[in-house]
Amino acid sequence: MAKLKFIKKLAVFTGGSSLELTVTKQLGPVATSADVASTGTDDAHFSDKKLTPGPAMKPLNPANSYSILWQGAFVKDGSATLTVRVLDATGKVLTTKVVSVAGQAGDVFFRIILVP
Amino acid sequence: MKLRLIFAFFPLVFAVPSLAQVDPCTSPQPADPMTLDDYILTLTTTVSDKFNAANKSNATAATDTKNELASRANGDGNTNNRLDLLKKAFLALDLGQVDEKDGNLVFNFNPDTLNSLTIGQFSPRITVHKAMIFMPLEKKIETLPESVQQSRKDTLTKGIGDLDDVEASIRWTLAFGTPRTGLQEVATDIFDSVSNNNQKVRDQLNHDVAQGAQDITNALGSPSKPIMIATVCASPATKTILDNLTKEIQTTGTQSLTELKKALDGTLFFKLADLIDGQPRFSANGSFRRRNNAAGPDERSFEFRFDMGSVSYWGLKRFAASRQSGTINPAIVDQYFKDKSGSAPNFSISVDYVKTSDFSILLPVDATEFQQPSSRKISAVATGGLYFGGGRAHRLELKANYDDITDDPTRQNRFVSTLSWVEKLNPTLTQALGGSDLTVTLVYANKPEFRGEVNHDLGLRAGLKWSIGGTTTK
To answer: Is residue B14 part of a domain?
Structure first.
């Protein structure tokens, strides 16, 4: 929680935006993780624990492009939903993307989302 | 009638845009233009779906992604029959999954709103059976002179439509406890350790996609966002980047999934499902099968079932409580599975009721009437198993069966029970005897005529049977 506040403060200080990831699940169990790849050097990895209930956050550098690789696996049938939000320095939501995956027991998956 | 109307309206809902093309620059452009973001997201969906379909033993053509099917439904404008249209519409509307088995189409609905931990899980399904001549009717035709048999069958078959044998059913399952919630934390712990250790391939892929998107943006100058696929395809330079990205996502994406699956297979992650399946649970299945023309009579059935596995979430909780302070973690799950390796496979009891309506139809040409009166069937089955002596080499299996079927003297008030001792043979004996299991079965029936053939008589109603079974490959 303290880290989250720090990232928000950092975003205000740098005037940059930040990325917020949240995962919700139904049935399962289902577990996921998310990797944020940057064309710069500010990659990030978020575990299932950080994504659910979330939000997991990282500051974005406007000079870089980012993509998110979200992967997961289903112990039993269920679904998982990743909500990606980009916030500006004041906390205003600039964009929101919602990606849902329904899977059966034993399934694995990945999705790649380009950060706008 | 209502069922037929529902199916008749499915084909009217085809204004669904196509989504997934492997090469967006050569495929027909969808009505709704696609963005670069959507293309990459959809491509990863397709790669994942294909990977999972290939990993399932019962994978069929029906496991193609819903997007691909929707694309074809929208794109080619030609469909073979109503069933094909129904399948595509069902998938395009995201109502659930469609499976094809032995020529039957099974539409599994996914109503998340009907799932609850307290009232149970409801699974509605519609099965469109491959319609064919009702078996007793076919047998009746086979008693006619051989010269007319085929023409009678052909005439009756022509009169059967592809929706003349449709079954609607709903299954209800109630498991005790909250194993999904309880095991989510364990699943998370296992998954997090695996995902932390298998990063190289997916990091490469993720960076290549981020860089590729950046390169496309740079090559286009200052493109308006979002970047449209049509814009990317219009420039040879950006099209090449897109083609490379597509290949990369397909090959490295599949490799990444293979690594993830393999890494998880090496853990207890997927085995956690046994703890959920093994929870004591009730299930009920009700169905109505409507048949028209020569396809046969209508049928209603109801099944009630109770199951309990050898390992369960409750068992795990008790085990954890006896070992630690009730904490369930991956290490405790591992110990529990090892500890229970020699326990009973499962226990189940089920009661089945089937009511078949009366059926009559005029045979073609000679107008002879085929009639079959209504009937009912009640059956109950109880099964249980037990490993003994440590390990999995020696097993006892109990099965008790009761049937009462109208107009079937061989299955009226019939009770048969068997107790089997199954012994795993060593490799030398397996090779010599041509099977890996020796089974000795004690049979008891309530009437002598129900006992069947035995190797050794123990009276009129009981006997002993033995056999060698299993495989010889292990």
So the answer is: yes
Cα B440 to Cα B79: distance, rounded to the nearest angstrom: 55
Q: What is the pLDDT of residues A68-107, one digit of tens each?
A: 999 999 998 889 999 999 998 888 888 999 999 988 888 9
pTM higher than 0.90: no
Q: In chain A, what residues touch B273 (CB-CB under 8 Å)?
A: 75-76, 105-106
Domain count, chain B: 1
Rounded Cα–Cα distance for residues A80 and A96 (Å): 16
Whether chain B has a CB inside 8 Å of the CB on A83: the answer is: no
Structural domain harbouring B4: 1-110
Contact yes or no for A26 and B115 at CB 8 A: yes
* A73: containing domain: 2-114
| CA distance, residue A90 to nearest chain B CA (Å) | 22
Residues of B in contact with A52 (CB under 8 A): 188
Backbone angles phi, psi at B240, to 5 degrees: -60, -45
Q: Is residue B453 part of a domain?
A: no
Contact B202 A112 (CB under 8 A): no
| 3-state SS assignment for residue A91 | coil
Residue B60, pLDDT above cutoff 90: no
pLDDT tens for B95-141 read 777 877 777 888 888 765 566 667 788 889 999 998 889 998 888 88
A108/B52 Cβ within 8 A: yes
In a domain, B67, yes or no: yes
Interface predicted TM-score (ipTM): 0.85
> Count of domains in chain A?
1
Beta-carbon separation of A67 and B213 below 8 A: yes
For residue A90, give both structure tokens. Answer: 């004041």
Residue B238: pLDDT over 70: yes
Asked if A51 contacts A31 with a C-beta cutoff of 8 angstroms, the reply is no
> Is B45 a domain residue?
yes
CA distance B205 to A68: 10
